[in-house]
């Protein structure tokens, strides 16, 4: 089988295409013929040696997100059959409940080998069934970005409900799924970008209000104006410390800020959090239980993930370069034929 590995992690050029024997499933394992994989900002940080959770072992197979079909099962496998369409969960042993210290050690593409390979072995517990209306390419976008957005909006103390307002920063994978989930819930979505073309696109996809943060650098004031001074109920905060103070100011008293990204640096003053009684949640993807809940909602509302561009397996480096350019809207996908 063909697969990509990372002999070292200094640059995108370190992605190395090679071959290994196709594995066979042991007891409780499932062999999946991967059909598509998708990229997250985490994957770019890992490949370039900038991952905040530390480096990865030499020759690690990258990427956490992928979808394919079951081609062989080991003994005692009861959850899946040959031919089932599946996706792996981000942390292979976080099945439900609260996250604990053991879960990050099972994260695909980081602590353990990922999915940028023609075949991948999974424990049967580390997979979910794809919604029937999604293609493999669409299904491959779900494990990290979509589950992260779902966790942010639905797994906290105040789950999103109809009539709530949501602020979404940027137009990457997490924010685009957040937009789709907000629209499905009947919530008001306010989205930011530095590109008017991207803002026009998100309005087509259902955003109620948009803000060009380059033209409006004090965008928190515009959020407050749009909400008649109240602020939003939820913030999907993917920027990090550099944007967090404005996200807090954009929140209503007692609102919820879901901290996901680390795109910008800076210092955080906790005074504003206390003053506004904001609930701050650090989000690290989510569990299989969340994934399955989300898939039921995706099926019910026939949600189709937003894919910016698809690359061939042999062009994986180009896919990473496209992600690095920050020109994408939605997800970047690699097909595995």
Short description:
The protein has ten helices and 15 strands. The chain is of the alpha/beta class.
Give a description of the structure:
The chain is α/β, with parallel strands linked by helices and 337 residues long. It has 2 domains: 2-144 and 304-335, Quinone Oxidoreductase, Chain A, domain 1; 156-282, Rossmann fold. It is built from 10 helices and 15 strands. It has helices spanning 41-47, 136-139, 142-154, 173-185, 196-204, 219-226, 244-250, 271-275, 288-301, 316-325; strands at 2-5, 16-19, 29-39, 65-73, 85-88, 119-123, 127-129, 165-169, 188-193, 209-212, 232-237, 251-259, 279-282, 307-311, 331-335. The strands form 3 sheets. Strands 3, 4, 5, 6, 7, 14 and 15 form a 7-stranded mixed β-sheet that branches. Strand 12, helix 8 (271-275) and strand 13 form a beta-alpha-beta unit. Helix 3 (142-154) packs across helix 4 and helix 6 (219-226) runs parallel beside helix 7. It is globular. The model has no long low-confidence stretch (mean pLDDT 96). InterPro entries: ADH-like_C, ADH-like_N, ER, GroES-like_sf, NAD(P)-bd_dom_sf, Zinc_ADH-like. One of its GO terms (molecular function) is oxidoreductase activity. It comes from Kushneria indalinina DSM 14324. This is NADPH:quinone reductase-like Zn-dependent oxidoreductase.
